[in-house]
Amino acid sequence: MPRIVGVDIPNDKQIRISLRYIYGVGPAVAEQVLKEANLDPQTKAKDLTEDELSRLAELIQRNYQVEGELRRMVQSNITRLRDIGCYRGLRHRRGLPVRGQRTRTNARTRKGPKKTVAGKKGVKEMHRG
Q1: How far is the C-alpha of 97 from the C-alpha of 90, rounded, in Å?
Q2: What is the pTM of this model?
Q3: 3-64 is a CATH 1.10.8.50 domain
Q4: Which end of the chain is more exposed for a tag (fewer CB within 10 A), N or C?
Q5: What confidence tens digit (pLDDT) does each residue in 54-100 have?
């Protein structure tokens, strides 16, 4: 498996797909990097030479924030939002959706599995007289 920026990328997939296994590299960035490196996006990852791999790694490292550096930046942004006490920070702190989604139904990814709460039963008092 070729290794780029500390990530093993799949051998048997096209390089434009394999590059997406790197955190911070999506479809658009992958295409852009391959265009800059003058590589065919259809090429399989296993068919790349050492020179081409090092060129790709160098381009990604130089022009983009990826992997650990990007994860740290995202985490520090979330921490900053929490510290200043803005609405988005409060949503992060409470583990609720941050971008305005509804929470009455759905939102299970952020809220976790359902916690059933017992509701009030209608009290029917029966008086026999």
Answers
A1: 10
A2: 0.76
A3: yes
A4: C
A5: 999 999 999 999 999 999 999 999 999 999 999 999 999 999 999 99
